[in-house]
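Regression check, zinc ion case 452:
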Amino acid sequence: MRITDLNSGREIGANCMLAEFGGLRFVIDCGMHPKHAGKQALPRLDLIPGNVDGVILTHCHLDHLGSLPLLVRQHPGTRVFTSGASALFARRLLANSVQVMKRQREETGNVDLPLYVEQDIERVEHALTAVPIANPRKIGQGGEEIILTFHLAGHVAGAVGLMIEHRKKRHFFTGDVHFQAQRTVGGAQFPRQPVDTLVMECTRGATTTIPDISRGKEEARLIRSINRVVDDGGSVLLPAFAFGRMQEILKLLDESAAEGNLVDVPIFCSGLGMDLCGYLEEASKKTKQVNFSQKVLRELGVQSLSRRYVQPGKNLPVQGIYVLSSGMLVENTPAWRVAANILDTKENAVFFVGYCDPDTPGGELIGMKSGAEFKFKGLDHTSVLKAEVERFHLSGHADREELIDFAKALSPKDIILTHGDPPARAWMKETLTKLLPGTRIHDPEPGVAIDL
Ligand SMILES: [Zn+2]
Ligand SMILES: [Zn+2]
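Current build output:
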């Protein structure tokens, strides 16, 4: 296998890998960088030499899916192999991405935007080919072939890892993985037999795992904290990715309410997240890969957040629990707008429930002390932080120790690190080098091919 990381930097960024097997060429994921806008956010699609024999999509987070319409436009006729559930979600998430890019164009005047339009999404829709889980699929041309098998990856609805077999060699790609069960998806069901190559995500490589923290305990602490803030007269903002994390949180709130453990106060969600609830329900019915029903929205009486925002700095007119995207409080998202009505009031709270990149507004806020200033660029407002800010450990990514155990079980000849910031990659490389002395560990340089 020859593998080239097409991500533009050694970070989480825009996930995209070129994997070549003999004369066959595949692209695995084609994401968009969450922190950049316009062409800067794209992976290095220009480095793909000639035609591709297929595209494989591990899941529908935008850092894996967001640039796919451009790849399909460049390679008309290519097929995009993905799970049945992801084939349902892709269109809705890409359509939202077009809306976001159109808004960005208005706000910034960047004439490159939107990078793709509805017609490109239609092409993706035609290219999508659902492959059943744990069902080997031969893909080939001119006498050469690979066998592709999907394995559920936990993480988010529809997510898969993949085994690619080629000329008796086995290569496993984790995609984004979570080994423990969540509410909307079960844990990863990855094979644990030896392979030749392991391409492994390492999102949490720099995150120390605290032994006493369990998901259950963190969820209980979150619910107690929400109840305390609301009882004391405040509102709670829960920044959450609209796809996956938001439905997880809604299910947790619904369960707590059913047990009589949740304070009675209005709950608000952003439009995309509520829309995706319908898609997750459809995937639950059609694929068994997902576990979600929209009755959660009805039982909780969830209301859509109106787009008429309150003046920045003023407290929210309705006390409530606000579950809004984005999870990292990215500029101009509903969560960021509402934060401008949360931070200046000491009764309020912002509770982070997922991964937050240190360079995003969310990452900045997590590190801030009470009384510090938080600038809302574009709103012409600076908050003086009085609200409580807290982080809860409910990640959708595997702990680093779980990844190390998994790598040991597969005892590959080569491990290629991906989907991690430099400190995460460094910890993984150092630890794996010690524990697996017979394995070569690669932290690939973007755009440079590795021959295995
Ligand atoms: Zn993901
Ligand atoms: Zn990702």
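Comparison notes: The two ends are 5 Å apart (CA to CA). The pocket of zinc ion (ligand 2) is lined by residues 15, 61, 63-64, 176, 419 (CB under 6 Å). No diff flagged against the previous build.
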